[in-house]
Amino acid sequence: MAYQNLLFDIADGIGTVAVNRPKALNALNTETLRELQRALQELENNPEVQVVILTGVGDRSFIAGADISEMRDMNSLEAIRFSKLGHTTLDQIERLGKVVIAAVNGFALGGGTEIALACDFIFASENAKFGQPEVTLGVFPGFGGTQRLPRSIGKARAKELIFTGAMISAEEARDFGIVNRVFPAESLVEETRRVAKKIASNGPIAVQLAKASVDRGYDVPLREGCHMEAVAFGACFTTMDQKEGMTAFLEKRKPRFKGK
Ligand code: CAA
């Protein structure tokens, strides 16, 4: 499928989607969000793909937020629609039956931080910058930032970032728990692919159920979450991969998972 605003690649069980609007520092306009939804659906439907890496083209920016030139003249209804388009895209990332890693290679501002937070985890380059600068534009985060950021780093820290609009470095973002790991810019892609390959070598159904178990269990009481975990754990035992994984261990060889 052809994309005007994305680079799209599948190799070694890893799908890579890179927002490709470097002249606008990879800002997200409506067209790009729609293409992202199509790309995510294509990756969801492809059984070869187990891990998705989301990044930005170039060495300056991951995603510098929603497109300000498109938003400037929006009326209220158009802004609601735009916000909802962002929400459905981020929801699609969160619910994808594949692991999604954000490789943040520069500015992740506004919608950039928000989309990264919807991924399963974030790796960043040393020059990455995170922030919610929307209040400097007379608006506030509209792609879930007021919801996911407090859940990620706590209410008080999230409020400080959202109310000041200040940028933080990759190191600070790691200290806050937004970012898992920080790499020199030149090794971000390679290190992200290394971890993606490790995940892709594991039982695909087990990884998918583990993602759902963490995410679905996160918002419910512990007892409820543990019950959901037990049911999903049981579901693993209906798969050929569980028999293969445990047999391979006992036969002291590498498993050959089939995703069945
Ligand atoms: N939307 C549209 N265009 C953008 C953009 C954005 N979010 N961010 C950068 N650009 C464009 C600039 O307009 C500029 O275009 P021209 O060359 O045509 O003038 C080009 O990208 C390069 O940007 P700068 O010249 O500004 O580069 P810089 O190095 O001086 O600054 C920056 C980099 C600090 C990231 C600065 O571009 C910036 O502050 N960008 C806006 C960041 C922002 O406020 N993001 C939040 C958007 S609102 C949002 O996301 C709402 C939401 O939650 C849904």
Structural summary, described in words:
- This protein is an alpha/beta fold and 260 residues long.
- The protein has two domains: 6-200, 2-enoyl-CoA Hydratase, Chain A, domain 1; 204-250, Orthogonal Bundle (Lyase 2-enoyl-coa Hydratase, Chain  A, domain 2), CATH 1.10.12.
- It contains eleven helices and ten strands.
- It has helices at 30-45, 68-71, 76-95, 111-118, 145-153, 155-164, 170-176, 188-200, 204-218, 222-236, 240-250, and strands spanning 6-11, 14-19, 51-56, 61-63, 99-104, 107-109, 121-125, 129-131, 167-169, 181-183.
- The strands form two sheets. A six-stranded mixed sheet has the order 1-2-3-5-7-10, sandwiched between helices.
- The two termini are 27 Å apart.
- Bound molecules: acetoacetyl-coenzyme A.
- The site of acetoacetyl-coenzyme A (CAA) has 22 residues, from helix 2, strand 6 and helix 4.
